[in-house]
Write a structure and sequence with these properties.
Helix content: 55-70%
Number of strands: 4
Mean pLDDT: 75
Structural class: mainly alpha
Distance between the termini: 57 Å
Low-confidence stretches: 1-31, 127-134, 295-329
Largest sheet: 2 strands, antiparallel
Shape: globular
C-alpha cells in the first residue's frame, strides 16, 4: 500500500478522537474518515452507539494495516501532542499483537513519550524510600496511568532477568567511539532478539519503561556517530572534487563517487528503523573505513579521515608500522587528548553525573558509620569525611563558598571512581583490542576532564584560603592528592601500553 501522508495523519486524528478539524488543517480539506464515523456520529447514533464503535474499530484496524513503523517515525515530531501518542499506545498494547510491526510501533511510541515528556526533566525526578529501596521510575508510573484500563500481562521471573541486561547494553552502546565499531559489535540485532525473547511481556509497563530509556540513549549515540561519519565523508568528497577526483572508494564492488555522496541524505536515513536500514548504515561505515586507508589529503581547515595513530605510524615506522594493529604501537597520549571531541566530553559528563547520583543515593541512605565506604562494581570507593558530607549537602545550587567546595568534592570523587573503573576494565580486556581501545579512549577523556577539574579545585582552594577557611582548603587539597594519584596511574598505564 502506498505510504500516503493522509493515512499517517488520519490515524493520528482518528485515534485522538476522530478530530475532523485536525485532518482538514493537514490534508487541505480532504477528510479521509468515512462518512458516519466522525466524532459527532457517536452523539447522533440514537441507540446504535455500539454499531458505530464497531465500524470505527474496523476503520482503525484498516489504518493500522496501512501504516508502517517508518511512517510513524516521519509523522511524529517534537510538536506532536503527547495525547495522540498516549492514545495510540493504548490501542497498540490492547491489541497484544505479537507481530514485528505492532511491536516496533509500540517500541517507537513508548520511546517518543520518553523523549518528549510533558514537563522537561519529568522522568529524572525520582525519590527513595526510607529504607533506601528504589521506587518505580516516574516514567513507569506514567505508563501505568496511561495503560490503567488495559489488561497487562504479569512478568515471569525469566523475563525479569532479561530486563536486567539492558543496563549493560546501554553502557556498551554509550562506549562506542565510531560508527564502524558500533555496527560490527552486533548490538542492534542482539537487542532486537532480546526484545523478541520477552514475548507477550513486551507490552508490560515495566518492560516498556526499561526499553524506552535504552532506545533513547542508543538513538542519541547512534545519531551522533552517524553524523560524524557522514560529515567526514562529505568533507573528504568536497576536497577530492576540488582536486579533480571523482571516485572516493569501492564498497561491495561498487565505486562510490562524489555524486553519490552529494545525494546522501542522513536525516532521511535516520528516520528509518535501524533494523531495516542496517545495510545502508554498513555501506556508510565501510566507505568511511575505506577512506581511512587512503593517504591524507592536505587541505587547510579540513579534517582528515586518517586517524592520528595511523599518521604517526606512517611517519616513523614505514609501511610495516602503518598496517600493524593499534595496540602494537606506543600510544601518543598527548595527541589523543588533543583529538578529543565535544561529543566525547558530553558522553563522559553524562557518566560522571550518573556516578555522582549513585554515590549520593548510597551516602544518604547508608548508616553514618559506613557511608564513607561506597561499594562500586569492581572495588570499594573510600570517601573522606568532607567528601561524604558534600554528598549529603542540600545547598549545591547556592552561589557560595561552601556550595562551590561541595561541587568540587563531588566531581573529584566521581572522576576518581570513573578512572578506577576504566583502569580495571583495561586490565580485564587486555585480550580484546576493540574493547581495550574503547576503555583507553574513555581514560584519555577522563585525563582531560581531571586537568580542568584540578584547575577549578585549585581556584576554590585559593578562595577558601583568602576567606581564612583553612579546613575547607585542606579538604580540597586532600581530595586533589587522591585525584593526582589516579591521574598519574592512568597516565602511566596509557603511556606504557603498546
Amino acid at each position: 500500500m502506498v505510504e500516503d501522508p493522509k493515512w499517517e495523519l488520519a490515524i493520528l486524528a482518528t485515534v485522538q478522537g476522530f478530530d475532523e478539524k485536525l485532518l482538514q488543517e493537514h490534508v487541505g480539506g480532504e477528510v479521509p474518515v468515512p462518512a458516519g464515523l466522525e466524532a459527532i456520529s457517536l452523539q447522533e447514533a440514537d441507540g446504535e452507539v455500539h454499531q458505530t464503535l464497531d465500524r470505527m474499530r474496523r476503520w482503525l484496524r484498516l489504518l493500522d494495516i496501512a501504516i508502517t513503523p517508518a511512517m510513524l517515525r516521519r509523522a511524529f515530531t517534537p510538536e506532536t501532542d503527547p495525547e495522540i501518542a498516549e492514545a495510540m499506545l493504548r490501542y497498540l498494547v490492547r491489541k497484544k499483537d505479537s507481530t514485528d510491526a505492532n511491536r516496533d510501533k509500540t517500541d517507537f511510541i513508548t520511546t517518543f513519550l520518553y523523549r518528549h515528556p510533558r514537563v522537561p526533566g519529568q522522568w529524572e525526578r525520582s525519590g527513595y524510600g526510607l529504607d533506601g529501596s528504589l521506587p518505580l521510575s516516574p516514567f513507569e508510573i506514567a505508563l501505568l496511568e496511561i495503560l490503567a484500563d488495559t489488561d497487562v500481562p504479569s512478568l515471569p521471573e525469566e523475563h525479569v532477568q532479561l530486563l536486567r541486561r539492558f543496563d549493560a547494553l546501554q553502557q556498551e552502546a554509550e562506549g562506542f567511539q565510531d560508527l564502524n565499531a558500533l555496527l560490527e559489535s552486533g548490538i542492534i540485532p542482539r537487542v532486537r532478539d532480546l526484545k523478541q525473547a520477552l514475548d507477550a511481556s513486551f507490552y508490560h509497563p515495566g518492560v516498556l519503561a526499561t526499553i524506552a530509556p535504552y532506545n533513547a540513549a542508543f538513538g542519541r549515540r547512534f545519531d551522533s556517530l552517524f553524523h560524524v561519519a557522514t560529515t567526514e565523508i562529505k568533507d573528504f568528497a568536497e576536497a577530492l572534487e576540488e582536486q579533480g577526483g571523482s571516485i572516493l572508494g569501492n564498497v561491495d564492488g561498487v565505486d562510490v563517487t562524489v555524486e553519490h555522496v552529494a545525494t546522501l541524505q542522513e536525516s532521511e536515513l535516520l528516520k528509518v528503523d535501524y533494523s531495516t536500514a542496517l545495510d545502508k548504515f554498513r555501506r556508510v561505515s565501510k566507505l568511511k573505513k575505506a577512506l581511512e586507508q587512503r593517504p591524507p589529503m592536505r587541505r587547510a581547515g579540513r579534517p582528515t579521515l586518517v586517524p592520528p595513530l595511523a599518521k604517526a605510524a606512517r611517519g616513523s615506522g614505514g609501511a610495516a608500522a602503518a598496517v600493524a594493529p593499534a595496540r602494537q604501537r606506543m600510544l601518543d597520549v598527548r595527541a589523543m587528548r588533543a583529538a578529543i571531541t565535544p561529543s566525547q566530553l558530553s558522553v563522559e559528563e553524562t557518566k560522571l553525573r550518573q556516578v555522582e547520583e549513585s554515590i549520593r543515593v548510597f551516602v544518604r541512605v547508608a548508616d553514618p558509620k559506613f557511608r564513607q565506604v561506597v561499594p562500586m562494581r569492581f572495588f570499594n570507593l573510600t570517601l573522606t569525611p568532607a567528601e561524604a558530607e558534600a554528598y549529603c549537602a542540600d545547598y549545591l545550587e547556592e552561589k557560595s563558598l561552601r556550595a562551590g567546595t561541595a561541587r568540587v568534592l563531588l566531581r573529584i570523587v566521581a572522576v576518581i571512581a570513573r578512572m578506577t573503573t576504566e583502569l580495571e576494565e583495561l586490565r580485564r580486556h587486555e585480550n580484546s583490542s576493540s574493547l581495550w581501545k574503547l576503555h583507553a579512549d574513555s581514560l584519555v577523556v577522563l585525563l582531560e576532564v581531571a586537568e580542568t577539574l584540578a584547575e577549578n579545585a585549585a581556584r576554590v582552594s585559593a578562595l577558601a584560603t583568602q576567606h581564612e577557611a583553612a579546613s575547607v582548603a585542606e579538604a580540597i587539597q586532600t581530595s586533589l592528592a587522591k585525584l593526582h594519584e589516579r591521574t598519574d596511574a592512568a597516565g602511566r598505564t596509557l603511556a606504557h601500553a603498546s
